[in-house]
Write a structure and sequence with these properties.
The longest helix is centred in the last third of the chain and has 25 residues. By secondary structure, this protein is an alpha/beta fold. It has two domains: 263 residues, Type I PLP-dependent aspartate aminotransferase-like (Major domain) (Aspartate Aminotransferase, domain 2); 113 residues, Aspartate Aminotransferase, domain 1, CATH 3.90.1150.10. Helix 5 packs across helix 13 and helix 15 packs across helix 16. Helix 10 links the parallel strand 6 and strand 7.
Length: 486
C-alpha cells in the first residue's frame, strides 16, 4: 500500500503544473491579451489573403515533450499561423461568407472554458441549459415560429441541417425500404452541406429532384408543384423540400411563401437553410423578403455568420419538438441520475452531441453587453454596401448578376477580346496574389463569376473602395498577361 501512496505523491507533484498559480495565470493572460490587442489593432494593415504558406516543417516535426514559454508560443502563432492563407477576422474578407469574430465571442468562450459548465443535460447545469434554451426561443420569435417550437445550438450550419434532415426522415417515417422511392426537392444552389447531411442520414439513395431556377437563381415554385404531382402519380413519396434564404453563390431567397403552401398541400417537410441570410430578417426593410419562413418545419440559421460571432455556433429551429426528441434521445444506464422530471429540455436529447461546448455563453454575453441595435445596424450596412458595390463595379466594365437581395453578388469582366471565362479565371489569380481584399469565384451555368460576400462587421465603405481599386489594378495586370502571351 505504501508503494501506491508514495507513487501517488510523486504523480501529484508532477501533474501540479496543470493547475497554474494566480501569478502564472496572470502572466499568461497578460501575454495573450497583448497578442489580441496587437492582432486587432493592426488588422487593417494586414492583407486579407496571403497566397502562400511555409508551415509544413514546423508542424510536421512538432514536439510536445518539452514545455516552452508563453512568449515563444505566441511568437510561433504570429509567424506560422497568422501570416498565411485567409484572414477571416479581416474586414477585407469579402469572399466566402465571413464571420468576423466580435470580441465578446472570445470573452464568452473564455468564461465557458474556465467554468466548464456541461450544457448538454439540465441535471448537469440548469443555468447553462436555461440560457441556451432562452436564446433558442428568442431566435424562434425572430423567425416567427410558435412558442412551443424548440431547437439546438450546434457547431454550424452543417450539423444544423443534419439535425433537421434526420428529424424529417423519422417524422415522415422513411424506412430503409422507402429510401429509393422517397424524393428530396432542392436546387443547384442549395448549399453542399445539405447534400452531405442527406448522405450521412442514410438517404443517399433518395431521388434528388433539382428544381429549375428563374433568372434570379430562385426556385421555380410552379415547376416544383408539377414535379411533386408527377412524382405522386408515379407512386413515389415526396419527402422534403429544401429552400434557401440566402444562397451562398448569389444570396438569393427562394419563394418561401409559395413553397410553404405546396409543402402543406402535399404533406412534405419544408426545411429552410437560412444559415447565411436568416438574421437579415432583423432589418426592417428586408423583413418582407422572408415571408413564408415562419411556415417552415425547420430553419437552420448561423449566429457565427449573421451575428458576427467567431466560427462555431449554428442553430437549428424545429417546430415539432417531439419528433426532434424521438430522433435524438437515447437512454443510457450510466446517465440514470440525469433522467427525471425537469423544467427544461436538455440539448443532448435534441442533437447528435452528448458532450457539447457551452456555446450559448458567447452569444448571450455578446447580446447582453452590446444590445441588439448595433447588430441590426451592421446588417443593414452590409446590405447597402452590396448595393453600392453592385453599382460601382459596373462602371469598371463588369457584367453583374441579380441585384443583391442581401449582401452577396456576382460579377465578371466582359470588356475583353479574350475568352471571358479564361480572362476571369486569370483575373481571380491576380486578385488572390494581390491579397488586399479576399474575393472568391464560382461557376454558374458554365460561366466563371467573381463573388463578393459582404458580412464581416469590419467591412465598411472604405473596404469596398479598396476592393474596387484592387480589382481595377488586377484587370490591367490581366490584360498585360494576355497581351504578353498572344
Amino acid at each position: 500500500m505504501s508503494e501506491i501512496t508514495d507513487r501517488l505523491e510523486i504523480l501529484e507533484q508532477q501533474s501540479s503544473s496543470l493547475e497554474p498559480s494566480n501569478l502564472q495565470r496572470s502572466l499568461w493572460m497578460g501575454k495573450v491579451q497583448e497578442y489580441a490587442d496587437q492582432f486587432i489593432d493592426g488588422i487593417e494593415n494586414r492583407p486579407a489573403f496571403k497566397n502562400e504558406y511555409d508551415t509544413e516543417n514546423l508542424f510536421s516535426n512538432d514536439s510536445f515533450d518539452t514545455a516552452i514559454s508563453i512568449d515563444e508560443a505566441v511568437s510561433l502563432i504570429k509567424s506560422e499561423v497568422d501570416q498565411y492563407g485567409l484572414n477571416p477576422a479581416s474586414g477585407g474578407h469579402v469572399g466566402y461568407i465571413p464571420g468576423g469574430g466580435i470580441f465578446p465571442t472570445a470573452m464568452g468562450d473564455f468564461i465557458a472554458a474556465v467554468n466548464n459548465r456541461y450544457a448538454g443535460i439540465f441535471f448537469g447545469s440548469p443555468g447553462a441549459v436555461r440560457m441556451e434554451n432562452a436564446l433558442i426561443q428568442w431566435m424562434n420569435e425572430i423567425i416567427g415560429f410558435p412558442k412551443d417550437a424548440h431547437g439546438n445550438l450546434c457547431s454550424g450550419g452543417s450539423i444544423a441541417n443534419l439535425i433537421a434532415i434526420t428529424t424529417a426522415r423519422d417524422k415522415k417515417n422513411i424506412k430503409s425500404a422507402d429510401v429509393d422511392r422517397s424524393v428530396v426537392y432542392l436546387t443547384q444552389q442549395t448549399h453542399h452541406c445539405v447534400q452531405k447531411a442527406i448522405r450521412i442520414a442514410g438517404l443517399r439513395e433518395c431521388i434528388h429532384r433539382y428544381i429549375p431556377m428563374d433568372a434570379e437563381f430562385k426556385m421555380d415554385a410552379v415547376y416544383l408543384r408539377k414535379q411533386i404531382e408527377q412524382d405522386i402519380k408515379s407512386g413515389l413519396k415526396p419527402f422534403i423540400i429544401v429552400g434557401s434564404a440566402g444562397t451562398t453563390d448569389t444570396g438569393s431567397i427562394d419563394p418561401l411563401e409559395d413553397i410553404a403552401e405546396l409543402a402543406k398541400l402535399y404533406d412534405v417537410w419544408f426545411h429552410v437553410d437560412a444559415a447565411y441570410g436568416g438574421f437579415f430578417i432583423l432589418v426592417d426593410d428586408l423583413k418582407s423578403k422572408f415571408k413564408g419562413i415562419e411556415k417552415a418545419d425547420s430553419v437552420a440559421i448561423d449566429p457565427h455568420k449573421g451575428l458576427f460571432l467567431s466560427y462555431g455556433l449554428g442553430v437549428i429551429l424545429i417546430k415539432d419538438v417531439k419528433a426532434m426528441f424521438e430522433s435524438h434521445f437515447y437512454k443510457a444506464a450510466y446517465m440514470q441520475d440525469a433522467q427525471g422530471r425537469f423544467d427544461e429540455l436538455s440539448p443532448a436529447d435534441l442533437s447528435p452531441e452528448l458532450t457539447k461546448h457551452y456555446r450559448g455563453m458567447r452569444l448571450w454575453l455578446s447580446l447582453k453587453l452590446l444590445s441588439l441595435a448595433p447588430f441590426k445596424a451592421a446588417l443593414e450596412e452590409k446590405h447597402l454596401l452590396a448595393k453600392y458595390f453592385y453599382q460601382e463595379i459596373q462602371k469598371l466594365g463588369f457584367e453583374v448578376g441579380p441585384e443583391p437581395e442581401l449582401s452577396v453578388l456576382i460579377y465578371r469582366y466582359v470588356k475583353t477580346d479574350e475568352d471571358v471565362n479564361e480572362f476571369n479565371k486569370h483575373l481571380m489569380k491576380e486578385i488572390h496574389n494581390d491579397g488586399r481584399v479576399f474575393l472568391s469565384s464560382t461557376s454558374l451555368n458554365g460561366d466563371e463569376w467573381i463573388r463578393a460576400a459582404i458580412l464581416s462587421f469590419r467591412t465598411h465603405k472604405s473596404t469596398m473602395d479598396t476592393s474596387l481599386t484592387m480589382i481595377k489594378d488586377c484587370v490591367e495586370r490581366t490584360k498585360k498577361h494576355f497581351e504578353a502571351i498572344s
